[in-house]
Amino acid sequence: DIQMTQSPSTLSASVGDRVTITCRASQSISSWLAWYQQKPGKAPKLLIYKASSLETGVPSRFSGSGSGTEFTLTISSLQPDDFATYYCQQYNSYPRTFGQGTKVDIK
Amino acid sequence: EVQLVESGGGLVNPGGSLRLSCAASGFIFSSYSMNWVRQAPGKGLEWVSSISSSSSYIYYADSVKGRFTISRDNAKNSVYLQMNSLRAEDTAVYYCARDRLVGGTTVAYWGQGTLVTVSS
Across the interface, do A36 and B45 touch by the CB < 8 Å criterion? Predict the structure, then answer.
């Protein structure tokens, strides 16, 4: 199984900050990586697919990069609505594994 | 608009069984792979199972293999998760989710979730 490791687990930031979250795969997954945002009590929301493609309707301050085993999610200027937990997920192979999550909270 | 509505969750004793249902609307159900993803209280997301559009391909997480069965009825626009031999660690919100595109990709659409609690 492919293991996905996110860092950091928690990130404290202020509105307007540039935020970067890292996701590492235990083996190459090409670009088959997605990023999700989840708020308490809500279902996850797809932000990025295929490592760097922005899902329709997602603000352009979100961007993704990477391939192989190293990936990043960047929020260029953190907004109040962005305080949430973020997960990466590989869909290169089954089982489709998630990272453990990164909680972005208010500094 | 894509809509996924889960039902069937509840409180069940360890060793018991439960069948979750997911009613889909707003898209051609028979064209898309469907998935179940769960989230234990206060924990992260865990992929549980996937089924292809024609039920030809089915996959399970090791943690549920042999105990859970995914199925679908394209005539009823529904996907199911039969859960047997339930354990305390199966306690979670279970989400039904649709792949983003036909042909198998990542999940893009989610239901609101249904809570399964395994406890005596």
Answer: yes
Q: Side by side, which strands form the sheet with A102-106? A: A10-13, A102-106, A85-90, A33-38, A45-49, A53-54
**Nearest CA distance, B46 vs chain A (angstrom):** 7
Closest C-alpha among B65, B64, B82 to residue B73 = B82
Please indicate whether, in this complex, the C-beta atoms of B100 and A49 are within 8 angstroms of each other: yes
d(CA A18, CA A40): 23
**All residues at 6 or more sequence positions from B81 whose CB lies less than 8 Å from its CB, including other chains:** B19, B20, B36, B48, B49, B68, B69, B70, B94
Angstrom distance (rounded) from CA B86 to CA B96? 19
Where does A5-107 have alpha helices with state H?
A: none
pLDDT tens, chain B, 120 aa long: 999 999 999 999 999 999 999 999 999 999 999 999 999 999 999 999 999 999 999 999 999 999 999 999 999 999 999 999 999 999 999 999 999 988 778 999 999 999 999 999
Listed in sequence order, the residues at least 6 apart from A54 whose beta carbon sits closer than 8 Å to its beta carbon are A47, A48, A60, A62, A63, A64
CB–CB contact B47 A89 (8 Å): yes
